[in-house]
């Protein structure tokens, strides 16, 4: 399920992105550039935020990689 990032508050969106970019062990202090990059890609529609109800988690994927529901 695609979550329109514009529907999230800025704080919630940042929290989701922060959680995603730090999953691989990236330190929060090193994540600022990645967070800004993800925000730009969301704004340009090169990434979409997807919620998976089975795992109850979010991920960022290119729009053409969104699984069919």
Q: In oligomeric terms, what are we looking at?
A: single chain
Proportion in β-strands: 15-25%
Helix percentage: 25-40%
Structural class call reads: alpha+beta
Count of individual beta strands: 3
Mean pLDDT: 91
Distance between the termini: 7 Å
Total number of distinct structural domains: 1
The helix count comes to: 2
- Reported by name, the CATH topology is Arc Repressor Mutant, subunit A
CATH architecture: Orthogonal Bundle
CATH class: Mainly Alpha
Low-confidence stretches: none
Descriptors:
alpha+beta, Arc Repressor Mutant, subunit A, 2 helices
Structure description:
The protein is of the alpha+beta class and 69 residues long. It has helices at residues 10-21, 32-43, and strands at 2-3, 48-52, 57-61. α1 (10-21) crosses α2. The protein has a three-stranded antiparallel β-sheet, covered by helices on one side. The protein starts with a strand and ends in an 8-residue tail after the last strand. It has one domain (2-65): Arc Repressor Mutant, subunit A.
Short synopsis of the structure:
This protein is α+β, with helices and mostly antiparallel strands and 69 residues long. The chain is 35% helix and 17% strand. The protein has a single domain (2-65), classed as Orthogonal Bundle (Arc Repressor Mutant, subunit A).
